[in-house]
Amino acid sequence: MRDEILFISDLHLTIERPEVTQKFVNFLKNRAPQAKALYILGDLFDTWIGDDDFSPPIKKVKQHLKALSQQGTKIYYIHGNRDFLIGQKFSQDSDTVLLDEYSVIDLYGTPTLLTHGDLLCSDDLAYQAFRAKSHTKEWQENVLSKPLIFRMLFARWYRLRSFFHKRKKSQTIMDVNIDTVSSVMEKYQATCLIHGHTHRQAIHDFQVQQAPAQRFVLAEWTKESTSILCFSPSGHTIEAI
User: CB–CB of 139/133 below 8 Å?
Assistant: First the structure.
């Protein structure tokens, strides 16, 4: 009987990282079918310029996601800061369920909040301003109306720009704000939080409204190493891939 729930994020799949793509495909074929659900908490792809983009490895990834779903493993997806333009066509092609940016699930009796994690980095004011603008319907419709080749060039420019901007920012600014974490968990009445984005895999014990709480930060996927977060009725484990 399948009783495991798996959580992953920040694979940043791209044609330039074939080893990570193959690692993910192997995971979908060999490990994920043992679970009853897989939650992907954003940045599965390093960029996403629209559901009409069929450049590698998109088609391959969608095919293997759908194959996993057809084997009985439910797949859920929360947008990341790199692939927030993923839409309903991707959802249909890959047989995944798109969730809200903040989603609460009952994780074996524990109210658990799921999110990508970028919203928790509230000290990064420049990014939060861009995020607010880029998540409007008008901005997205304007971008997606452009020819595919234009969006490809824009994505390359944005990745380069993002790289140099990050080099200028402190590590503290790019990490979560603990007051934001606490207020969001209080708002959604959750005692457990699972997120990615920061690439700082860890388990943090703290308190929300004087009650015990936990924050799980998921690992980034690289060709050298990665891990997945596994939950079952008996508890949680960090499993190396």
Answer: yes
Compute CA distances 154 → 82, 144, 194, 195, whole Å. Answer: 13, 11, 31, 27
Half-sphere exposure of 44 (CA within 13 A, CB side): 26
Is the preceding omega at residue 56 within 30 degrees of 0, hence cis? no
pLDDT, tens digit, for every residue of 179-229? 999 999 999 999 999 999 999 999 999 999 999 999 999 999 999 989 999
CATH number for the domain that contains residue 118: 3.60.21.10
Pairing outcome for strands 110-114 and 192-195: parallel
Contacts of 89 (CB under 8 A, 6+ apart): 51, 52
Q: For residue range 88-141, list pLDDT tens digits in order.
A: 999 999 999 999 999 999 999 999 999 999 999 999 998 999 999 999 999 999
Residue 148, CB half-sphere, CA atoms under 13 Å: how many? 6
Which long-range contacts (C-beta less than 8 Å, at least 24 apart) are formed by 60-64?
60/21, 60/25, 61/13, 61/21, 61/24, 61/25, 61/94, 62/90, 62/93, 62/94, 64/24, 64/25, 64/28, 64/29
Looking at the chain, how many residues does it have? 241
Which residue range(s) make up the domain with 135?
Answer: 5-240
- What's the number of domains the chain is made of? 1
pTM of the model: 0.94
